[in-house]
Amino acid sequence: MSDQPHDAHVDRADPRVGDLSEGRILRAILSRLGTSGAEVGPGDDAAVLRAPDGRVVATVDTLVHGPDFRLAWSTGFDLGFKAAAVNLADIAAMGARPTCLLVALAMPDETRLSFVEALADGLRAGCDSLAPGCAVEGGDLTVSDTLTIAVTALGSLDGRAPVLRSGARVGDVVAVAGELGLAGRGLALLFDRFRNAAGQPTGVTIELLADAERRDLAAQLRPEPPIALGAVAARTGATAMMDVSDGLVLDATRMAEASVVTLALDAQTDEALGGGEDHALLATFPADVTLPTGFRQIGRVVPQGAHPVLVDGEPHTGRAGWDPYRDWDSTRG
Amino acid sequence: MSDQPHDAHVDRADPRVGDLSEGRILRAILSRLGTSGAEVGPGDDAAVLRAPDGRVVATVDTLVHGPDFRLAWSTGFDLGFKAAAVNLADIAAMGARPTCLLVALAMPDETRLSFVEALADGLRAGCDSLAPGCAVEGGDLTVSDTLTIAVTALGSLDGRAPVLRSGARVGDVVAVAGELGLAGRGLALLFDRFRNAAGQPTGVTIELLADAERRDLAAQLRPEPPIALGAVAARTGATAMMDVSDGLVLDATRMAEASVVTLALDAQTDEALGGGEDHALLATFPADVTLPTGFRQIGRVVPQGAHPVLVDGEPHTGRAGWDPYRDWDSTRG
Fold first, then answer.
1. Cβ neighbours for B212, distance < 8 A, ≥ 6 positions apart
2. Do B60 and A145 touch (CB under 8 A)?
């Protein structure tokens, strides 16, 4: 992002960000974000957001090229959408309504402007479809060797108490909203079917996929967590709630330990138990509450036993959470 | 950050983060951050912070290894302190009081735990010394090829209106709090004196430096912007304010353009006019206001002329802002 365009090398139709001023890139992004709903939106040293009940819910999550995504598999739009979705899910998991995002984007000079524009479109589409009223209200642009998208999400509890991981009580119903296992299957599909002989990621030819496979891939690349159901669950009396990001068994274990109980889950497929990146909402409700539409019962809270989680009455012996990226660092396509 | 330590390769005294679980690294960080002042602090899906006047000020800024710092020159403590300071300055520049930080840390597997601990210590020390009452209340850990520290800062206006860049009025006094030019000189010192014959950064031997040089280096590596003066300026009636991060002339130009005026500055050294990363506060005050202690007058607001900024009556012809990192990418020490 120099202030001195290297005109000789510029592709005028789709320049590299390294050939553009920061102001030019910012204008391209801001023009795609829609109207600010903030008291002070992008453009000053900081944004000023409303926090109507005198509190603000805040979380940050980062997507890093290599460990978290590959450009051969994800479009800019996908990445913007996913970066929004995974952060909105953390706000929803507190029982809150997302109000705004701040986006810190660090990218190589070689990044094309069209990619940045698609990423901005994806951020906006993610907010508009998953959390209407939430928008990008600030951010930061930096140069980096590694494409990195760090998103901060803020939200409002609208006067309610936050729904913590630690509130599950013996006798509560365990319920989940959103899909389990699809995003993990989508990731396995990418690793199995869209790498070349050298193991490098290749473009995704969606025409080769069956409908169920396309759904799995979409859950991985452009997840649509049930954001609005977070506040609904809180209003309905959820006693505990969290985002299922690292696999149902692993996250249920965290909730069980924080609540000092055991979660006795019904039988599930291995994919549902161990898949990552679902961004479903795991919640517990008092037994006499009618579950809100979108939640389904998957178990019961029982007194703390030797195991924090039981599946169909037994401790889980299979894989709990799965991360194929972590030990796969030979290629960065 | 695997869940399976590779015991054979672990330096038990100072392990690599790649040999530790995420939980282990988090515990090391959290134990260094002091007591949470939040309604919900670190450990759940999101933090819940107080926003006493029903609004929250929010900003994000990123430090990336390569373009923004070099590990040969900065310690983990320096980086934590600086990452806090530059974000606190953006909150202060709105006239607000910083209330909390969220820290997204993306780091190579090779990063030593001692470095992460020093970084956490630096974040805490930066908050404690520059913005007492502000603390790290959340964050995110990720693996990356490139060490990246993205910090979100939140703040409270405590019932005041935000002080924007656009509020400077003809007749106002232009004033600054904090040092100008030191951080830029410190950076020049690093580039001039602490690189080897191949141009690669080498360790800083502070014993070789004169007192003034040590002060310049400290301003670059561990800046101490006048954070508390942001709220003081707002209470005193500042009409416009901003953080001077890209050099006085460049940032004064931004304020002049946002306010549709010209800023007529007194004569300054070239280093003060063009140095970057000062994180001083540039503000305008009504002429009849006694400047708060810590601010000094450096000019006057005059009607918009052909040039947004005048220095000693003339347009500035020298360097406006300087970034030697940007075009220096051959080494990453």
1. none
2. no
Q: CA of B44, closest CA in chain A: separation in Å? A: 7
Average pLDDT over residues A257-284: 95
DSSP codes joined into one string, A251-277: HHHHHHHHHTEEEEEPP--HHHHH---
Please indicate if any CB of chain B lies within 8 Å of the CB of A243: yes
Query: Which SS3 state, helix, strand or coil, does residue A142 take?
Result: strand
Minimum Cα–Cα distance from B242: chain A residue: A45
Which tokens sit at B254?
């931004």
Distance, CA of B42 to CA of B100 (rounded, Å): 11
Q: Which residue has the tokens 């006493």?
A: B52
- Chain B interface includes A56 (CB < 8 A): yes
Binned at pLDDT 50, 70 and 90, residue A4 comes out as very low
Contact B46, B147 (CB under 8 A): no
Residues of chain B with pLDDT under 70: 1-10, 319-333
CB-CB contact of A173 with A284 (8 Å): yes
Instruction: Name beta bridge partners: A150.
Output: A62, A104
- Confidence category of residue A7, pLDDT binned at 50, 70, 90: very low
Q: At what angle do helices A76-92 and A228-236 cross, to 10 degrees?
A: 10
The phi-psi region of residue A200 (left if phi > 0; otherwise alpha if psi is between -120 and 50; otherwise beta) is beta
> CA B90 to CA B165: how far, in whole Å?
12
Give the C-alpha separation, B74 to B46, whole Å.
30
Q: Residue-wise over B264-295: b if at least 16 C-beta within 10 A, else e?
A: bbeebeebbbbbbbbbbbbbbbeeebebbeeb
In the beta sheet, which residues pair with residue B24?
Answer: none
Q: Tell me the residue length of chain A.
A: 333
Of A93, A102, A332, the CB nearest to B60: A102
Q: Which residue in the block uniquely carries the two structure tokens 């232009």?
A: B174
Of B47, B36, B52, B292, nearest to B157 by C-alpha is: B52
Which residues 6+ apart lie within 8 Å of A24 measured at CB? none
Identify whether the C-beta of residue B151 lies closer than 8 Å to the C-beta of residue B187.
no
Distance from CA of A305 to the nearest CA of B (A): 23
DSSP string, A104-134: EEEE-TT-BHHHHHHHHHHHHHHHHHHSTT-
Which residue type, as a one-letter code, is found at position B78?
D
Query: What domains appear along chain B, each with residue ranges and CATH number?
Result: 15-156 (3.30.1330.10), 165-315 (3.90.650.10)
Query: What gap in Å lies between CA A81 and CA A205, rounded to an integer?
Result: 20
The mean pLDDT of chain A is 92
Q: What is the ipTM, given to two decimal places? A: 0.92
Sheet holding B135-143, edge to edge: A47-50, B55-64, B148-156, B97-107, B135-143
Instruction: Give dist(CA A16, CA A5) in Å, integer.
Output: 10
Q: Give the DSSP letter of residue A162.
A: P
Q: Which residues contact B54 (CB under 8 A, 6 or more apart)?
A: A50, A51, A52, A53, A54
Q: Which amino acid is at B315?
A: P
Which one of B40, B53, B61 has the shortest CB-CB distance to A162?
B40
